[in-house]
Amino acid sequence: MSAQINSDNFVTDLLTANNQDPGRLLQCLHAIQYRYSYIPKHAIDQLASAMQLTQAHIEGVVGFYAFLHTTPRGQFDILFSDNITDYMLGSRELMRWLCDRLGVEPGVPRSDGRVTVDATPCTGMCDQGVSILVNGITVTQVDDRRVVIIADLVEKNVPVAHWPAEFFTVQDHIFRRDRMLFSDTGKGEALHALHEKGADGMLDDIEKSGLRGRGGAGFFTALKWRFCKQAEADAHYVICNADEGEPGTFKDRVLLTSHSNCVFEGMTLCAGIIGAKQGYLYLRGEYLYLREQLEQILAQRREKGLLGKNILGRDGFDFDIEIHIGAGAYICGEESALIESLEGKRGIPRIRPPFPVTHGYRNKPTVVNNVETFTAAAKIASLGVDWFRDMGTTQSTGTRLLSVSGDCARPGIYEYPFGITVQQVLDDCGATDTQAVQMAGAAGSMIPPQDFGRAIAFEDVATGGSFMIFNQQRDLYEMVLNFARFFVHESCGFCTPCRVGGSLLKDLVEKLYHCRASRYDVEQMKNIGALMQRSSHCGLGTTAPNPVLDLLNHFPGLVEQHLSHDSYEPAFDVDASLQQARQITGRDDEGAHIR
Amino acid sequence: MTQTGMIKIDGRTITFEQGDTIIDAALRAGEYIPHLCHNPEFHPHGSCRVCIVEVNGRQASACTLQAADGMEVINKSESIMEERRNLLQMLFVEGNHICPGCEKSGACQLQAVAYFTNMLSPHYTHFFPRRTLDASHPDTVIDFDRCILCELCVRASHDVDHKNVFAISGRGINSHLVINSPSGKLGDSDFAASDKAAHVCPVGAILPKHRGYDQPIGRRLYDKQPVSIVGDVAAHEQDES
Predict the structure, then answer these.
(1) Which of A517, A502, A534 is nearest to A569 (CA)?
(2) Strand order of the sheet with strand A412-417?
(3) Distance to chain B for A465, nearest Cα, Å
(4) Can you give the pLDDT at residue B238?
(5) What does the domain layout of chain A look like in residue ranges?
(6) Contact check, Cβ <8 Å, B167/A56
(7) How far is Cα B67 from Cα B10, in angstroms, rounded to an integer?
(8) Residue A436: pLDDT over 80
(9) pLDDT in tens, A233-246
(10) pTM of this prediction exceeds 0.90
C-alpha cells in the first residue's frame, strides 16, 4: 500500500477556496471541525501537504484551540457557558439535568455519537439567562422547559437549523444610552469628514478628542495610529479585536449586532489615515452566529462605495475587511496573540517590543483596536471633537459601555460618561444588598462596598467593560474559584509562572475553599500571585492572580472563616488517600485511618 | 560602525553593541545571568523567565529586553534570586525530575541553575504528571517527564536542521512537545542523532542512547564548578561526545 493521502473533497475545496495559504490554517480547521465535529487525521495530512506545513505544526494548532478536537464530538456538540454569572443563574444544574436526560457524562460523546454536553468559558451572554452553544451557534434563555425540548430535539435528530427560531434570539438589552448609542452614524459621514480634513487633520482631531483604547489598557488611539502611519512598509493593516473574551463582557456583541456599520466605518477611517488596504475583524468563535449578518453588512457597504475599491469614488482609497473567526482561546484577545492566531498559528503572545504598530500582522505595521474604540473613532470623525470631549473626565474622555450582569434587576448594556461612580451603576441596574462588584472581568479587580463611591475611569477604577455584581448571599469563593480555573484553562502555557503558577494557585484556592488551608498556604498564595504579576510574559499571567489576591486582601474575614487551625496542612487529604488501600485490604478499623 | 552603549549590572558598567539584549551584553562581559531557554545561537524566546532581572525598577526577562544606554540592571539581589528559585521549583514540580535516577544528573542545566540559586527542595506540591518515554529511535531517547518546554529542540530543528521535527501542542498546563511523524514517534521521524536538535536540550529530555554513565558521577560538567563559570550544557556538547 502506498502512503497515498485519502483525499477528501470537502478539504480539497476548502484548500482551493483558501489558496492553500498557511495563514488561513485556523479558518480551514474551523470549517473542518464544523463539518466533521473533529479534525480527522486525513484532513491534517491533506492540509499539511497542500499548505507545506508539518503535521506536528497543525497538530499543535489544533491542540491549542478549545473548539478544535482530534477525536469526534457528538453530532450535537452542546456547550454550556461556564462563567460565574451563569453559575448564579443555575447553569450547572441545567447542564447536569440535560446530561441526565440524554444519558451522557460531561465532555464524553454518547456511545451512539449523537451528542456531547460540556462547559466552556463565558460566551458573552451573561444578560441572556443561561446560554449554550450548539454546534457553535448560540441558544439563549435555557431553562427547565428548554432543556426538555433540547433533549427531545437531539433524540429526534432535528438539525440545529430547524430548531425553534426563538431559541436563537439574542437581545441587545440596552438600558442606558448616552451620546454614543443615541447617535445614528456609520453611513459614510466619517469618511466624508476624512476627505475634507485630510489624514493628518483627522488624526489631529482624534488626538484632540483624547480617545483611549476601550480594550482596557487605555493607550491613546491617535498615538497608536500615528506610530503605525509613520512606520514605513509596503503594507499596513487594520485589525478589529472582536475577541471579546473577558468573562462578563458583552458590549462588543451589542455593537456588532446593532452598530456594526459604525465599527466598520471606524476601521475604514483608520485605514484611510494609516494607509492600509486590508483589514480584519477577528471575531471570537463564540459569536459565530453573528458572522452571516456581519458579512451582509460588509457586502452592503461595498455596494454603497464605503468599502472596496475607490471608496467614496476617490481614486486609490482602497480598503476591504475580512472576518476571521476564533476557536476558543481567551489569550487571543491579547493583540500580539491575536495576530499570531490571525496568521493561522497558536495564539502565543509575541515578545514586545517590537509592537504591532511597527511589526504586526505578517510583520507589517498594524493597528489593533477594540470594537468600541473603532466605533468611538467613527463617531468622533462624524460628530466632532467637542461632541466627544464634552463627556467624561479630563483623562478619560467620552463614554464607556458597561456590560452589567449578576445580581441585579436589569442585566444589560449601560452607557455612561466616564467618571460615573460604581454606586450609580448599581442604583440604575437595580442592584441591592451588594457584597462586591467584579470590575473588568476575571482579570480585573474586586470592588468591596467601601469603594463603591469610586469613579469608573482610567485614572480610578479602570474597566474593559465588565461589571459583575454579587449580592450578600453569594459565596465569593465560588467566583474566585471559577476565575482561578478559568485562567488555568486559558493560560497559553508559554511561560513558567502563568503555566505552572496558575495551576498551583488554583489548587490552593480549592484547598482554602474546602477549609483545609493554613496561614502558611495563604502566604504561599500571595507569593505565587506576586511572582506571576512580576515575571509573566504577558498580561494574562500578570492579571490572572488578581481575583485571588483581591479576596485575600479585601475580604480578610472570609479568609479567616475558611482557615484551618493548623499551621501546616498537607496538599492532599491523608485519610481519604488511604481509601483505596482500605478497600483492597477490606479493613475499616481505627488503625486503617489517619485522622 | 557598530554602535555601542553602556549599561550597569549590579553596579558594574559594561558595554553593549547595537542589537544586544541584556543577556547578550552580560554574558559577553562575563556577568552570569541564570537562564534555561536562552541559547545565544537562537532567537530569544523568553519562556522560562529564569533570567528575569530588575531594570529601572521594573522586571523583565534579560534574554528578550534590548539593552539601552544607561539602563541599571539588578541581577543578583536576594529578591530576584528568590523569584528565580520559585520559578525553578515550579519547573521541578511540573514534570517528573528525579535527579538521582537521571542519566543527565551532574550535566543538567536545570539542576545546575537550581544549585546556583540555592534551591534545596521543590517546595511546591508535585504535579506527578503521567508522561511517556519515546525509545523508538535507534540513537536517541526522549523522556517527556523531563521536558521543560524551552523549545530549544523546536528552534534547532527549524532554524538549523530545517527538519521541523518538533512542535508544541496543547495549551496551558497541558502544553507538551510533539514529534512530526506519522505515528508521532521519534523513530518514524527524520530526526538524526547528528542533528543540532539532539545537542541543545538543557535537561535530560533528549538523550543519546548506548552511552549511559560514560562519565561517572563526580566528574560531570557541573560537579566541580558552578554553572555561572561552566556556562550552558549545550556549549559543551562537543567535549561530551
Answers:
(1) A517
(2) A174-176, A412-417, A399-406, A466-471, A434-439, A445-447
(3) 26
(4) 60
(5) 9-64, 76-171, 176-389, 399-427+436-469, 477-562
(6) yes
(7) 15
(8) yes
(9) 999 999 999 999 99
(10) yes
User: Chain A: nearest CA to B225, how far in angstroms?
Assistant: 27
Q: Quote the cell numbers at residue A217.
A: 489598557
Cell of A555: 475580604
Element containing residue B60 per DSSP (H, E): strand B58-61
d(CA B74, CA B57): 9
Beta-carbon separation of A504 and B91 below 8 A? no
* Distance from the A123 Cα atom to the nearest Cα atom in chain B, whole angstroms: 19
Whether pLDDT at A3 is above 50: no
DSSP label at A290?
G
Inter-chain residue contact B47 with A488, CB threshold 8 Å: no
User: Is B96 at the interface with chain A, CB within 8 A?
Assistant: no
Binary contact (A351, B64; C-beta < 8 A): yes
CB count within 10 Å of CB B159 equals 14
Residue A42: other Cβ atoms inside 10 A = 13
Grid cell digits, residue A444:
480585573
Confidence of residue B2 (pLDDT cuts 50, 70, 90): low
- Evaluate the omega torsion of the peptide bond into residue A109 and state whether it is cis, within 30 degrees of 0: no
Residues 6+ apart with CB under 8 A from B214: none
Residue B219 domain flag = no
- Which tens digits make up the pLDDT trace of B184-236? 999 999 999 999 999 999 999 999 999 888 889 889 999 999 999 999 999 99
What residues of chain B lie within 8 A of the CB of A60, using their CB? 167-169, 178
Q: What percent of chain A has pLDDT over 90?
A: 94
B3: pLDDT strictly greater than 80: no
Q: Are residues B131 and B69 in the same domain?
A: no
> Using the beta-carbon criterion (under 8 Å), do A499 and B172 form an inter-chain contact?
yes
B169/A63 Cβ within 8 A = yes
A502 contacts in B (CB within 8 Å)?
172-173
- Give the ipTM of the model, two decimals please: 0.97
Domain that holds residue B48: 4-76
DSSP A536-585: -SSHHHHHTTHHHHHHHHH-HHHHHHHB-SSS---SS-HHHHTHHHHHHH
C-alpha cell at A76: 450535537
Residue B134 lies inside a defined structural domain of this protein = yes
CA-nearest residue of chain A to B53? A535
Are B135 and B37 in a shared domain? no
Which run of H or E residues covers position A237? strand A237-242
**Mean pLDDT value across chain B:** 95
- Check whether A565 has a pLDDT greater than 80: no
Q: Give the E-state strand segments of A372-520 in sequence order.
A: 399-406, 412-417, 434-439, 445-447, 466-471
Q: Which three cell numbers stand for residue A33?
A: 471541525
With 80 as the cut, is the pLDDT of residue B239 above it? no
User: For B59-74, how does the pLDDT look when each residue is reduced to its tens digit (9 = 90+)?
Assistant: 999 999 999 999 999 9
> Do B125 and B161 fall within a single domain?
yes
pLDDT higher than threshold 70 for residue A2: no
Chain B residues within 8 A of A492 when measuring between CB atoms: 171-172, 175
Q: How many contiguous H segments (helices) and E segments (strands) does chain A have? A: 26, 14
Mean pLDDT for all residues in chain A: 95
Identify all chain A residues contacting B52, using CB atoms and an 8 Å cutoff.
Answer: 534-535
A496–B169: do the CB atoms touch at under 8 Å? no
pLDDT band at B241 (very low <50, low <70, confident <90, very high): very low
**Which CATH superfamily does the domain covering A76-171 fall into?**
Glutaredoxin (3.40.30.10)
Integer Cα distance of A434 and B191 in angstroms: 61
Give the span between the Cα atoms of B162 and B140, in whole angstroms: 19
> What is the structure's pLDDT at A139?
98
- Kindly state whether residue B224 falls inside one of the protein's structural domains: no
> Which chain A residues are Cβ-neighbours of B79 within 8 angstroms?
none
